[in-house]
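Technical annex, item 7. During the second reporting period the consortium partners agreed on a shared format for inverse folding records so that results from different sites could be compared directly. Each record opens with the tokenized structure and is followed by the designed sequence. A conforming record, contributed by the partner at site C, is shown below for reference.
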């Protein structure tokens, strides 16, 4: 039998193995630990939205291929959401595209807009699919590192400007930011927008945590700033806002030209997905403001519960302004290697977390930081806090 000498995996993906989320979730299952690693809620979202999906199934809505751009009801609801929340006007027929979650939206946008050799600036630490999608598009990722300062993570605008070269194609933003919980300020976003206009750059912005901001923080879509609507692809998702992550309903809003480009790539990925769920999410986006206020208040209380428990256990805690993750520094506990710490944590305390270093090119910059998710039931978080006290003892 002939022996294959060429590696089977495409060289662009050779650096990416099994995701840390799969590894740590398997570790949680094997050890019976509380899984505060992977970011999914442990309860379903609104009952009326779940029933809307059941009704769509029974009525035969979406059981066959839905339209490629998404069902009209959802595209209209997305356009209305952007207009009512942010004053951004989008044509639901030409400027809205429904995707299989935000992950496909990111992949389709980068595959469509990036040529081999183009540089893509991403804020580090970054969600792990960003690096893989840039690689699949043949681009070169250029990380700009968010650094801890005075209890939060901040963007160095001088470092961002210095990262732009003649080969830079686009800036990949994420705000509210996973994993740090940073919400970029109006001043920071204005500076990014001015840089994009000055250097004629595209911006792809992942805003899936747009409704999960706390303590008066403002989520501001960069597409609303001068000169940005025509050069920005905005990505949204239903999973984080409505706690139906398994439905995988995401979307982009952008100019007709950008939407057409992203659709050209997306149609050869999933083509279509989540038919009946699209009708349900169309209803979800029209829920009254009280739903979003209650969601924010509930997660804000859970953030405080977990953050205070982690501090009592001995961690330095970076209390997030957004998302449902809290980043901690393990050095006060005498540790410096987040990977080793997270792999030993189930045995030491019966809790699973994620080492932030997986989200960095500069692994040493993320080595002592660990991320915990607080999108769990209150009693689960209380038990996790109780178990984590073993670390301080």
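Designed sequence (site C submission):
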């Amino acid at each position: 039998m002939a022996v294959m000498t060429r590696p089977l995996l495409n060289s662009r993906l050779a650096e990416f193995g099994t995701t840390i989320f799969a590894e740590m979730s398997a570790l949680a299952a094997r050890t019976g630990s509380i899984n505060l690693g992977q970011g999914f809620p442990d309860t379903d979202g609104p009952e009326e939205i779940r029933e809307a999906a059941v009704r769509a199934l029974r009525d035969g809505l979406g059981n066959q291929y839905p339209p490629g751009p998404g069902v009209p009801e959802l595209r209209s609801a997305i356009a209305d959401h952007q207009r009512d929340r942010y004053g951004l006007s989008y044509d639901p027929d030409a400027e809205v595209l429904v995707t299989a979650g935000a992950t496909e939206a990111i992949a389709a946008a980068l595959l469509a807009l990036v040529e081999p050799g183009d540089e893509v600036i991403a804020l580090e630490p970054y969600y792990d699919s960003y690096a893989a999608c840039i690689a699949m598009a043949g681009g070169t990722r250029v990380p700009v590192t968010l650094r801890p300062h005075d209890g939060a993570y901040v963007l160095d605008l001088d470092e961002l400007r210095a990262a732009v070269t003649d080969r830079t194609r686009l800036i990949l933003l994420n705000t509210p930011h996973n994993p740090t919980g940073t919400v970029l300020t109006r001043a920071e976003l204005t500076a990014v927008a001015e840089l994009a206009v000055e250097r004629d750059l595209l911006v792809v912005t992942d805003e899936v945590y747009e409704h999960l901001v706390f303590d008066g923080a403002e989520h501001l879509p960069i597409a609303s700033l001068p000169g940005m609507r025509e050069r920005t692809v905005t990505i949204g998702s239903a999973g984080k806002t409505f706690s139906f992550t398994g439905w995988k309903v995401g979307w982009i809003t952008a100019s007709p030209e950008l939407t057409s480009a992203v659709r050209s790539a997306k149609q050869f990925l999933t083509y279509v997905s989540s038919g009946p769920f699209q009708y349900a999410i169309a209803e979800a986006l029209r829920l009254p403001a009280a739903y979003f206020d209650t969601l924010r208040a509930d997660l804000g209380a859970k953030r405080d519960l977990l953050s205070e428990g982690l501090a009592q256990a001995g961690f330095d805690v970076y209390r997030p302004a957004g998302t449902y993750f809290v980043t901690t520094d393990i050095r006060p506990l005498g540790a410096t290697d987040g990977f080793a710490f997270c792999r030993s944590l189930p045995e030491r305390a019966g809790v699973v977390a994620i080492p932030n270093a997986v989200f960095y090119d500069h692994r040493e910059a993320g080595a002592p930081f660990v991320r915990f998710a607080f999108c769990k039931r209150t009693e689960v978080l209380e038990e996790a806090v109780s178990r984590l006290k073993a670390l301080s003892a």
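The mean pLDDT is 95. The chain is about 40% helix and 15% strand. All partners now use this format for quarterly exchanges.
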